[in-house]
Design goal:
single chain, alpha+beta, six-stranded antiparallel beta sheet, three-stranded antiparallel beta sheet, 4 helices, 19 strands, elongated
Length: 258
């Protein structure tokens, strides 16, 4: 086995993964409320250590080389994005990084609660308040918010849904202290398996007429993607070198020896 070939292959695969993550961040640089992901790598232990082999099987040189690299568990940055003024009184911006709006989603045919930072709220044809992805916005009791279609509505700084100067209900703004429990589900949504980790806030302060911009730094994401591409290309070159060495060993050195 050409050990270096496998080490280089692991470098190609993990850096292609990094490319995908950074490209996705860059593609969402203008997506409201988007949170960028990190693409971390981890060292893989030598096979003798990984499989707990005996010392007579272990090879000192290969053990020192290590086992290459692996993709580490994904992480998401929940840093606050800049608030952008839209002038639309149904838009709201959340000014605290660990606060989220609650929306309704479907999973295996059942209604589930998802969280989001996207505050672009509108009314659908049935009178329910929804996000651009069509998910219905929930009140503090996890119920979809229904308003009268014939009358305009707006959101107050206290998160109240107002019609004709009266509060109809209140948006659910939840706080998640440990954001590690949140898992991305696409369309700006986060899943939370244990709803006990969600604190439904009674007193909130939102910013009507604003939305949160993406927290992606386009320049940093572009540079990260370029670096990942260079690393993947470099490891691919190493695979070519290993292939050339094996070709020379078999077809040149082997023939001379014979």
């Amino acid at each position: 086995m050409n050990y270096g070939l496998y080490l280089s292959a692991s470098g190609v695969l993990t850096n292609m993964y990094r490319q995908d993550v950074f490209a996705n961040n860059l593609a969402n640089a203008d997506t409201a409320g988007f949170k960028p992901d990190f693409a971390d790598l981890m060292q893989r232990a030598p096979e003798a250590t990984e499989k707990n082999l005996s010392f007579d099987v272990s090879q000192q040189l290969l053990d020192r080389l290590g086992g290459g690299v692996l993709a580490a568990a994904g992480r998401t940055s929940f840093k606050q994005g800049a608030l952008k003024h839209t002038g639309i009184n149904t838009d709201i911006g959340l000014s605290q990084p660990k606060q989220f709006l609650a929306v309704e989603d479907q999973e295996n045919g059942a209604d589930v609660v998802r969280l989001t930072r996207d505050g672009r709220i509108s009314m659908n044809s049935e009178g329910y308040l929804v996000l651009p992805n069509g998910k219905r916005v929930l009140d503090q009791s996890d119920k979809p918010i229904l308003v009268e279609r014939a009358r305009p509505f707006f959101i107050s700084p206290a998160g109240e849904v107002m019609q004709d100067g009266q509060a109809i209900t209140k948006l659910q703004v939840a706080k998640v202290e440990n954001t590690d429990v949140l898992v991305k589900r696409g369309s700006g949504l986060f899943a939370i398996d244990d709803l006990n980790q969600r604190e439904v806030l009674e007193n909130v302060l939102v910013k009507p007429g604003f939305i949160e911009n993406s927290a992606v730094d386009p320049i940093t994401s572009l540079m990260n993607m370029i670096n990942a591409t260079k690393a993947a290309t470099g490891n691919a070159k190493m695979i070519q070198y290993h292939d050339t060495f094996m070709d020379r060993a078999v077809n040149t050195l082997g023939r001379v020896t014979a």
